[in-house]
Amino acid sequence: MLAEIKGINEECGVFGIWGHEKAAELTYYGLHSMQHRGQEGAGIVSSDGVELKPYKGMGLVNDVFKHADFDELSGKVAVGHVRYSTQGGKVIENVQPLLFRAQAGSMALAHNGNIMNAHKLRGELEEEGSIFQTSSDTEVLAHLIKRSGNEISEKTIANALNKVVGAYAYIILKEDKMFVALDPSGIRPLSIGKLGEAYVVASETCAFDQIGATFEREVLPGELITISDEGLSSTRFAMREQRKMCAMEYVYLSRPDSDVNLVNIHASRKRMGIELAKEAPSDADMVIGVPDSSISAAIGYAEQSGLPYEMGIIKNRYVGRTFIQPSQELRELGVKMKLSPVRGIVEGKRIVMIDDSIVRGTTSRRIVQMLKKAGAKEVHVRIASPSIQHPCYYGIDMSTRKELIAANYTLEGICEQIGADSIAYLSEAGLEKAIVKDKTLNQGICTACMTGKYPVKEDGQKEIVFTSC
Amino acid sequence: MLAEIKGINEECGVFGIWGHEKAAELTYYGLHSMQHRGQEGAGIVSSDGVELKPYKGMGLVNDVFKHADFDELSGKVAVGHVRYSTQGGKVIENVQPLLFRAQAGSMALAHNGNIMNAHKLRGELEEEGSIFQTSSDTEVLAHLIKRSGNEISEKTIANALNKVVGAYAYIILKEDKMFVALDPSGIRPLSIGKLGEAYVVASETCAFDQIGATFEREVLPGELITISDEGLSSTRFAMREQRKMCAMEYVYLSRPDSDVNLVNIHASRKRMGIELAKEAPSDADMVIGVPDSSISAAIGYAEQSGLPYEMGIIKNRYVGRTFIQPSQELRELGVKMKLSPVRGIVEGKRIVMIDDSIVRGTTSRRIVQMLKKAGAKEVHVRIASPSIQHPCYYGIDMSTRKELIAANYTLEGICEQIGADSIAYLSEAGLEKAIVKDKTLNQGICTACMTGKYPVKEDGQKEIVFTSC
Amino acid sequence: MLAEIKGINEECGVFGIWGHEKAAELTYYGLHSMQHRGQEGAGIVSSDGVELKPYKGMGLVNDVFKHADFDELSGKVAVGHVRYSTQGGKVIENVQPLLFRAQAGSMALAHNGNIMNAHKLRGELEEEGSIFQTSSDTEVLAHLIKRSGNEISEKTIANALNKVVGAYAYIILKEDKMFVALDPSGIRPLSIGKLGEAYVVASETCAFDQIGATFEREVLPGELITISDEGLSSTRFAMREQRKMCAMEYVYLSRPDSDVNLVNIHASRKRMGIELAKEAPSDADMVIGVPDSSISAAIGYAEQSGLPYEMGIIKNRYVGRTFIQPSQELRELGVKMKLSPVRGIVEGKRIVMIDDSIVRGTTSRRIVQMLKKAGAKEVHVRIASPSIQHPCYYGIDMSTRKELIAANYTLEGICEQIGADSIAYLSEAGLEKAIVKDKTLNQGICTACMTGKYPVKEDGQKEIVFTSC
Amino acid sequence: MLAEIKGINEECGVFGIWGHEKAAELTYYGLHSMQHRGQEGAGIVSSDGVELKPYKGMGLVNDVFKHADFDELSGKVAVGHVRYSTQGGKVIENVQPLLFRAQAGSMALAHNGNIMNAHKLRGELEEEGSIFQTSSDTEVLAHLIKRSGNEISEKTIANALNKVVGAYAYIILKEDKMFVALDPSGIRPLSIGKLGEAYVVASETCAFDQIGATFEREVLPGELITISDEGLSSTRFAMREQRKMCAMEYVYLSRPDSDVNLVNIHASRKRMGIELAKEAPSDADMVIGVPDSSISAAIGYAEQSGLPYEMGIIKNRYVGRTFIQPSQELRELGVKMKLSPVRGIVEGKRIVMIDDSIVRGTTSRRIVQMLKKAGAKEVHVRIASPSIQHPCYYGIDMSTRKELIAANYTLEGICEQIGADSIAYLSEAGLEKAIVKDKTLNQGICTACMTGKYPVKEDGQKEIVFTSC
């Protein structure tokens, strides 16, 4: 929901489980815990060793599966996916896992990330006679695997992955094997857990906690893991590189209770608030955070600054998709549904308002206005991450450069645009300090959208052409 | 609904329109009039000359489109499809029109019929690196077209059709052209109509009446028609053969108000009843028909025999999909939902019961029992078509040979099985006399399921492997 | 559905069962078979001897009960109701059975008919301090019973019924007794059946056939029946009068398989057609009937006249409530959903078109036009009942006098209005001959809407003020 | 949602607006902001000065109104209600506003609270001939008003209110007047606001903020307000008493952004946390709160104690009603949907866990276990209100005395039951200090459920017999 306000959208979460009687049902719970990573559609493909069985639909995980018969998703193996789709791609065909059937055996794919050379690869494949039913870049990988040999194996998958440039976390299922792969820079998160004897794979560790599984280890950059009844084996399809985990996972995207690349999200956000308070203190009466993602940073800022932390903005828990939108006339009266200021708290006060990031600035302006209208004397905006000035090619759907406020205005300009009394961003060094706990742990981050330092490049890459995930 | 009782299931209806502002909406009404040809799913793909836009879903036409926004199906061209799917294929992926996207241009396919060599062709295509997302034989044709050249044209389509063996009526849409094709024996129905300047194509002419269009002509066996803004042009991809229109279209499948290959369905059914009365008269008090498909034949039988026609069985108009099925206990009490005997009519009477056909015989037995329980003194069953003893390979989903009562019992055996006092079938000659009005009109029929005379053969064809349509 | 076309609307059907383990479920099936008597809402109240448990909702029986948990409607006793509501009263509150709770015991009421003095009675009750939650005249009876003494008994019910003037069939349920009452003229139908040891009560006998029950007898005019675990006992709250069963039940309202007051509906309709052929023959090529209610009369007319009966109009079986209505533009193109002419049958032919009745004449005009547009040379309209010229005060929702075509035009005028080549109605004597089989059976009919002879009168009665049922 | 976990359920919220073009729509938004006060059903009755128009349904406000046509709720006046219903009363009849129709004029009632002598009053009314259609105590008041004179006026309402004993906030609507009444002790909250010239009434002030209205004043204990086109006038139906606002509104029920009796909820909760830290400090590493209602108190405790406030428990934002519940087997695996511990935060730490209250103790035990399983070294439970030991007769649905853990165990016993390392409650004095800001403002509170000091008594009152609101 807030995702829509902000203009940053995570693209997808993947989940897989091997070796549990309740595989499909546990996948459902795992997907549910990663609902924040994609709200447009969800799907599960299970395997009983003989056949792959799909179930998918548009909407939230609950809506998709409320009429599902899990008996029809039998088997001890399952793969699931939640999807956020960019505009224009909101069709059921694109909902994953994609399922490809062949007389030699079927294959299901679940993907989080973006293939940067998908357009070029697809053109080549079409030249060779391939036809496509989705606008998803994930379908390209399926064709590449198929063209690498009639069998779906470690070898054909590695071949296909080596043709692909981008950021990706894949789970590939055939009747009797599951393959797990992460891009050579490890830009997208992907972890391995165990639930008894069963193996579990998920984009976020909150899915492990959800089902009672325990975290085992990270999937490594460039690693290709094979899981079967013989157990788990690992190989590399690419040279090991310095990991470049997406910084936005820490700043905004992941759930506070997840550990991303061994770092707890809430804790890292709180440290961002602490660093921000050190770098950009403020003479004010209280600290408030924009719910939900900025609460942790606001608590950190309050703790470091010694200012009281207050609940100055409320998020309505009952706002959903079916909500009847107020007419223009009523909006002007002040009818607002998602966020409300707490007049009794902010009236007459000087406020430090912590937000995790600013994309277009429209939401920030609205919140500052809302606070002032509720009586706030001053509003000092503090952003718990560096300013976003560059597009992401690695699977996050952000606004185009033209829309990014920080790409078009100076700090003073931004402050004026959003109507704040002052504004400051966390520095890149501050961000890194907040995230990286242990240099020996390969905890490097990708800050391309803030710094323009792109770890992976593709010649001529201009924009996301395909629906990525 | 009754379709389920009987065990004969039409597989699909197709509809296309070129050159009307309300193309998608008219397609909706056309599909609605052909709802009896397929109840599992429905879809429309429209074109505005630049882009193909799909909308499809599971269920009845009304259910699928009740939330559709026809503004999103803009354009003056549209293709639609209603689908009956055989067991195991009830997934949204198989709902047509199938849509294939390519950088060179997209293609939508709507199909009624069955490709007999689909399994073999698919195996070959997979060997060459093709991947499949549906279990529909229609996807095979798309690959064949694509493999015949990167362009979708008369030439590549004709090439592809020449590799295919079976019974089929196709509508193929690209952004700026519509192609219409019928198999060389013309086994499946397909007609051309006009609505003002717009061209209309449909499996049944009732779709023309529905939208106020007028019938122009039949699509000819082996004909490939191209419709574009330049008008309609025709070519042949196969030699002209004697037409072999599916006899079951007349006996059971089509709507009474349709003209199939220039013959009105109600009139032909009434003539079947007349012929049947001549061939197999009966000493009885009244004639009744099994609703809805046998009413016409019953009226003909009554007229010829001089016996009164009575409404001895009522069909409940409110039985739908959401109906709560009675428990076993209640079924034993006689709770029945679809058909009810009219006790006040049948009590103490000798009845001629007309049915259009018998497949497994279970429904006939149930109806005979029902009539006797309501007091009928005698029930003489008269079937207005020859007995069904052979499987259909041309797109009709009938029971397997093992289940066909006429393939396993003598006439006396059948009579005993269903508990009738006497039984008789219409002869093949009688059927032909009832259907073919004018020998010069190429009105030949396929009676393979009754006579075993298959007009089209494929070596080693044993059963329907793919989901046909 | 057709009900809406015609402008005659049955108001409600009632069902009750005493002494069966599956009482509520059987009530569901009984209501389903009487769906044609009311489509706006449905409800069931069951009793386990201790407590009355209600379930009701707006819409068709299937829609209302598809999510019902019949375990929550436990008990061996149940009462049910289907309702048609007049404009303005489409609210859930009015859906019956109405349930009134009191510390001394609860009471449920199901009603078919109309209380003519409801407005006056309600005014008096309000003066005395009663408050009302529905706009249903049924609530008035509940208050009258309550005011007749704190107990719900034969005596208080008889007292209340004696204050009420109108046409009514009531089922009243308390925890341990069921009461059944019919108005002194027996204008509305109500029958008693048995299912094993259980007693069944229903507006139409088709409900008995539906659940496997057998017909026992009619409820008599002015009879009050009490059913309990001690069995069935009967008393009279009013003097026995000549029965005046609503003639429209035979002409249009009841199901063809029901016996109303011992007369089968289909058979009586066929006799209406026979009498009509005798009274008003026609020089034509064929006879057709307007589906569904006029088919029986058309068959009778054909049989008597010797003309062939043909299926010249088809009714679409898939038209439902969710249907997307064609835009004005499309309607002008001829898009029509419910009835279609069969061009192949009617083209170039002189047609006798049988209809059961004409109310406003708009539907008749549309059908005649439709037939002529499909090529009919002549259309001779024959109506299988006398013309409707007077309002009904006994529970049938017909158009007002101003709208009744026969109240405003001569026969010639009507013929011209509807565009027919000739028109004739059945005579009152012909109707009576068709319905009354046996004068000794008290089979008198109410023809007030045709003849203005009202069997029950209330001073100053002008129009239906309350929502009747 | 959490309401169900806790076992305390607010019973209803009321909203009214007089004099705005968009009355019904604004009522919808107002009800939406008070969704937390009742999730079982919602309704609106509007008036256009001539007629009262109702719309209501079961479920959340969004679900009830998503298909509503607000044009049918026309008029410048509206009353709305959200309802929580106690077990057994989950029927649409009980959803408010209740609407009573009479020839002299209609009346709608919306009620929050509980009538303690409803059972007795209803018995008396039934003796006098009244009949009831709901099990709601609100219907009793309607009868009392009606019995006080045929007119709905200040006088008849005051008469009726004087017969009633309990806690209540009423809005009563007739075609041309709105009446607002609060019980003599002012136990339930009710405020007056203005939106331009329009008057607004609501249970919580968050509804004013929602629609852009401004707070005017509290409705006073024993006050009866009349609003009409002539404006607002006030009278008293009872002597002014010391106000006894329900303390649980502050502790748990109201939204943090509401001001209840001039006191902001978040601020009062934070002060409860501060007082609790003073009264019951704890040697620990961090403070965490149980979301959502205990967050404010946790922040206060942290601020006062100097311990860091951490997000140790996450509440899943996507848990809704349609959620598929995990099977027993999966629950044992640890599949939990609503609350999740943040392992990365709590592992190895000594935790102060703040909760607002304990009812049965089962939830507290589960949360303590969850934290320990996630690695917490110690869990010190601190409750930000005095222990609940007595039932509420004023409209809050709490567990019975038998189930209240504090009524059955000593402090040590409770600590052991929930598995905490220590436990402490806020004192009554601490609670009062946190809530009452200004003694001159009549800010007295009802602490009956904690102290047994009942401000309003009814002889023989034992339990809630009727469905209260």
From TrEMBL, chains A, B, C, D:
Active site: C12
PROSITE patterns cross-referenced by the UniProt entry: GATASE_TYPE_2
Annotated SUPFAM superfamilies: N-terminal nucleophile aminohydrolases (Ntn hydrolases) (SSF56235), PRTase-like (SSF53271)
Residues holding [4Fe-4S] cluster: C246, C392, C446, C449
InterPro entries recorded: GATase_2_dom, Ntn_hydrolases_N, PRTase-like, PRTase_dom, PurF, PurF_N
Catalytic activity, reaction form: 5-phospho-beta-D-ribosylamine + L-glutamate + diphosphate = 5-phospho-alpha-D-ribose 1-diphosphate + L-glutamine + H2O
Gene3D superfamilies associated with the record: 3.40.50.2020, Glutamine Phosphoribosylpyrophosphate, subunit 1, domain 1
GO BP field: 'de novo' IMP biosynthetic process; purine nucleobase biosynthetic process
Residues the record lists as binding Mg(2+): S293, D355, D356
One Pfam family recorded for the sequence: GATase_6
Cofactor note: Binds 1 Mg(2+) ion per subunit.
Class of the enzyme per the UniProt entry, highest EC level: transferase
Pathway(s) it belongs to: Purine metabolism; IMP biosynthesis via de novo pathway; N(1)-(5-phospho-D-ribosyl)glycinamide from 5-phospho-alpha-D-ribose 1-diphosphate: step 1/2
NCBIfam families in the record: purF
Role noted for this protein: Catalyzes the formation of phosphoribosylamine from phosphoribosylpyrophosphate (PRPP) and glutamine.
Family: In the C-terminal section; belongs to the purine/pyrimidine phosphoribosyltransferase family.
HAMAP family in the record: PurF
Protein known as: Amidophosphoribosyltransferase
Phylogenetic placement of the source organism: Bacteria, Bacillati, Bacillota, Bacilli, Bacillales
